[in-house]
Amino acid sequence: LIITMATLHASADNIPKNIEGFAPNGVPGIVQASVLVFYSYIGFDAVASIAEEVVEPEKTMPRGILGCIAIAASLYALVCISMTLMVPAADLDSDAPIAVAFESVGCS
C-alpha cells in the first residue's frame, strides 16, 4: 500500500536531485536492515520451531530463510526508492521518514 501510494505521488523531476544520498550505506546496509526487519517480524523462535516440522531441514530452512530475506530486502528497497521519488532523501526525517514524506506531498 505504501509503495503504491508513494508511486502515485512520485515525480520524474525528483530523480536527478533525489538520487544523491540514496542508500548511503550501500547494498550491505539494505541487506542488514532487511535481516533486522525479518528477524524482528518473524522471530528466531518461530524459525527454530518450524525447523522441527520440515522435511530435510538442512536443505529447506536455508532456502526459506534466504528467500524471506530476499523478499524483505526487495520490499525495503522499493519503499526507499518510492520515498525518494516523492521527496529528496535529505528532507526525510530519520525518526519517521514515511510519515514526513507523505506529509510533504499533502497526504496526512
Walk me through what this model shows:
By secondary structure, the protein is mainly alpha-helical. The longest helix is centred in the middle third of the chain and has 30 residues, at 57-86. It is built from 6 helices and no strands. 69% of the residues lie in helices and 0% in strands. The two termini are 15 Å apart. 10% of the residues are buried. It has helices spanning 2-8, 14-18, 26-42, 44-51, 57-86, 97-104.
Summing up helix and strand content along with how strands pair, one would put the structural category as mainly alpha
What would the average pLDDT be, to the nearest integer?
77
Q: How many separate helices?
A: 6
| Percent helix range | 55-70%
**What is the rounded distance between the termini?**
15 Å
Shape: elongated
- Kindly estimate the percentage of residues that lie in beta strands according to DSSP: under 5%
Count all strands and give the number: 0
